[in-house]
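Incident log, support desk, overnight shift.

02:14 A customer reports that sequence design results differ from what the structure should imply. Their input is reproduced verbatim below. On-call engineer (initials T.W.) acknowledged and began investigating.
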């Protein structure tokens, strides 16, 4: 469950820390006090997309931290897969939002990513807001409810693996089933182009080698001049060159060493240098003897360069990539030439994969039909408790072509009044009915869900009176198995809370601040009276509020 939520510099909240508990936690306050900011902060720690505009005016960054206790085995498994672990069942998530648009995340103090927070949050918190009720308008969401209720994750994963293989094979088959004239045209083109490349026989690194060789041939006279200069410096015109000078120096040092042995090592080094210089002079002389102009070879190089340039322009790639391109062309050519054999194999493999996918989809459909009936009956039972006594709920299945969801399309049809034919939710449900229907669905799914914390943001939209009280009783019932956080405007719901928090907006020194305060019994009576009576809190409202609390204690 969510134990502590710390928020810093988010919208009008400067700093606040909220300690939640087991059971039903209710948050109330005036409209615009900042209740939605609490939900925004929780969404941020869940790894949801968050705008930098949420950062408090004048601040460079915002920070949210959430501590969870008694995390479930499912959370432990996700943590282990991500390379983390809970410490004695305690998990801390942190996220910093920067005004530059960047964010940083941590899991138990170690760096993490937003996607990691998002993956973890799916097993930690389930948020139901007003917008989620409108998901009921989309039949695409209805199948997900039934799959979640039935616990078909393994079956769906297995089916989708087979279906994906079928789609890959189908794509290859479609590519193979190109027009015959197009296939022959491509064969003719590939035969010509691949032969052209194989005849060229371009070698890796050939272009660089040719460039080096051409540079040497073009500059043969400059090279000869430089080699002559180097040899002259070493040999001299009539001896007395650099090598001879070093030899004289070596002899002098050798003679000096006869008087002082300290000079022997230096004498040896000069002697070695002399022999190295002589070797260099001889090699330079050999290079001069070998150096010659070769106009024919230079012409061959230029012709080869012309060929390489033409091929690289034609095939729009580097010279070193031409051999690999030739191999690719040959592979494609062989596939086209063996078209009939490959096509028959693809057809057989594609049909087999489709058959396997269809078999799995049909097995999944049978399970969905059974689960849908139980699911609809349970949801209907919950909706009747929530002051919709005559509601009827029917899951309508339609068979579809194979898709990633199988062969099923499901739409929940509802009738809220006696004698009405069940119709799509979008056509008949009011805002209050939508809220209660979604609460009923969440209640039913909670029994199969391992999420420890359920958050209901203004689940009381469009309802009042006894219906609101029934919603509160249902939230109270759900809170026995899962921690529930609820943002509400209804006194009937707030009176049922195990813990009540007041969210207030204050203005101090020209700045707006939101403060979250846990309420004791007297403060709860005052807040309930405010919700009941509005601005002017009367003795009658206070008496009624106290009575509501006594009834629920």
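02:41 Re-run completed on a clean worker. Output:
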């Amino acid at each position: 469950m969510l134990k502590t939520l710390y928020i810093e510099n988010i919208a009008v909240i400067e700093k606040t820390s909220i300690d939640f508990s087991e059971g039903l936690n209710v948050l109330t306050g005036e409209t615009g006090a900042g209740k939605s900011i609490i939900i925004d902060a929780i969404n941020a720690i869940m790894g949801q997309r968050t705008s930098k505009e949420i950062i408090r005016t004048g601040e460079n960054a915002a920070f949210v931290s959430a501590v969870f206790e008694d995390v479930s085995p499912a959370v432990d498994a996700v943590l282990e897969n991500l390379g983390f672990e809970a410490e004695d069942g305690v998990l801390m998530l942190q996220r910093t939002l920067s005004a530059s648009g960047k964010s940083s995340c941590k899991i138990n103090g170690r760096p993490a990513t937003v996607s990691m927070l998002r993956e973890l949050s799916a097993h930690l918190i389930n948020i139901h807001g007003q917008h989620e009720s409108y998901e009921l308008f989309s039949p695409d969401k209805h199948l997900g409810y039934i799959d979640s209720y039935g616990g078909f994750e393994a079956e769906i994963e297995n089916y989708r693996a087979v279906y994906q293989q079928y789609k890959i094979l189908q794509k290859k088959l479609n590519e193979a089933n190109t027009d015959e004239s197009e296939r022959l045209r491509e064969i003719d083109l590939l035969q010509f182009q691949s032969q052209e490349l194989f005849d060229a026989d371009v070698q890796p690194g050939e272009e660089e080698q040719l460039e080096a060789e051409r540079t040497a041939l073009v500059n043969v006279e400059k090279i000869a001049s430089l080699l002559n200069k180097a040899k002259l410096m070493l040999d001299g015109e009539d001896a007395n060159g650099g090598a001879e000078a070093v030899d004289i120096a070596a002899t002098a040092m050798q003679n000096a060493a006869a008087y002082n042995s300290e000079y022997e090592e230096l004498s040896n080094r000069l002697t070695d240098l002399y022999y190295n210089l002589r070797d260099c002079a001889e090699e330079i002389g050999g290079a001069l003897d070998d150096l010659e102009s070769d106009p024919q070879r230079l012409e061959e190089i230029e012709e080869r360069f012309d060929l390489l340039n033409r091929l690289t322009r034609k095939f729009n790639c580097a010279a070193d990539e031409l051999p690999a391109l030739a191999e690719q062309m040959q592979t494609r050519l062989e596939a086209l030439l063996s078209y009939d054999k490959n096509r028959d194999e693809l057809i057989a493999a594609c049909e087999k994969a489709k058959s396997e996918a269809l078999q799995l989809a049909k097995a999944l459909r049978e399970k969905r039909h059974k689960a849908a009936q139980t699911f609809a009956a349970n949801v209907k039972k919950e909706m009747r408790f929530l002051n919709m006594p005559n509601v009827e709920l029917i899951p309508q299945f339609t068979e579809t072509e194979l898709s990633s969801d199988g062969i099923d399309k499901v739409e929940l049809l509802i009738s809220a009044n006696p004698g009405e034919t069940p119709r799509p939710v979008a056509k008949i449900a009011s805002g209050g009915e939508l809220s209660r229907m979604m609460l009923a669905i969440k209640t039913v799914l909670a029994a199969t869900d391992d999420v420890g914390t359920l958050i209901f943001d203004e689940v009381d939209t469009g309802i009042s009176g006894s219906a609101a009280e029934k919603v509160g009783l249902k939230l109270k019932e759900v809170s026995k198995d899962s921690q529930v956080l609820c943002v509400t405007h209804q006194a009937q719901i707030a009176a049922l809370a195990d813990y009540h928090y007041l969210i207030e907006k204050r203005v101090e020194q020209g700045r707006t601040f939101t403060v979250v305060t846990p309420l004791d019994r007297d403060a709860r009576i005052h807040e309930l009276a405010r919700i009941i009576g509005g601005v002017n809190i009367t003795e009658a409202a206070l008496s009624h509020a106290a009575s509501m609390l006594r009834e629920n204690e």
